[in-house]
Amino acid sequence: MQLIDIHTHTSSTRKDVFSIENKYPNSTDFSTPFSIGIHPWYISENSLQNDLKIVEEQLSSQNCYAVGECGLDRITETDFSLQLEIFKQQIQLSEKYSKPLIIHCVKAFQEIIQLKKEIKPKQPWIVHGFNKNHQIALDLTQHQICISFGETLLKNERLQETFSKLPLNFLFLETDTSEEYIENIYNIASELRKIEKQEFINTVKQNFRRIFKR
Question: Which CATH fold would you assign to the domain 3-212?
């Protein structure tokens, strides 16, 4: 295992990449490492209880590495109070099954941080696909929330500056829905941190072992 892709929606057969593939309750193939959760975009009151049941069933799988992605999104049409309710239930599942939480967050970072303070979870939280400013990133890390960066890191100078200043022990990389190769994201990440690529790879591996207990 060399390059860790903490969150992807694409199956990979590359020997030099370890990827955690995002799954939904209606997914059928759980034969490779995955995370599973109810995304705020796809909350359906008609199937909600069954979806939660499927998520919980899959959390016992050896291939399951995390709960998620799940979270809060103020842009989607799903009622925000319902999003909160379902997110809290998935936090409970994360705690019950000792799985880290992979979080989708759009315009709700203060709510995420407030929940972290109120619930005081024992399991690690990771905000994926981060593309906001330095102050939000700093707030997350100060509340012991890890941050994963994806394709946007390749071209967004403001995000690059933010990435270059964060504590290394809170960082992960991902491809998410992008077709970008994860190695390209590792290349820019090591350049931004002004360290050798292998050193950055080793740092992410250490973070992975600490967070996922694997």
Answer: TIM Barrel (3.20.20)
The tens digit of pLDDT for each residue in 31-70 reads: 999 999 999 999 999 999 999 999 999 999 999 999 999 9
71-74: list long-range contacts, CB under 8 Å, 24+ apart.
71/39, 71/40, 71/103, 71/104, 71/105, 71/108, 71/112, 72/40, 72/104, 72/105, 72/106, 72/108, 72/111, 72/112, 73/40, 73/41, 73/104, 73/105, 73/106, 73/107, 73/108, 74/106, 74/107, 74/108
The two most distant CA atoms of the chain are separated, in Å, by 51
Query: Where in the chain are the domains?
Result: 3-212
**Four-point Cα dihedral 34, 8, 51, 126, nearest 10:** 80
Query: What is this structure's pTM?
Result: 0.96
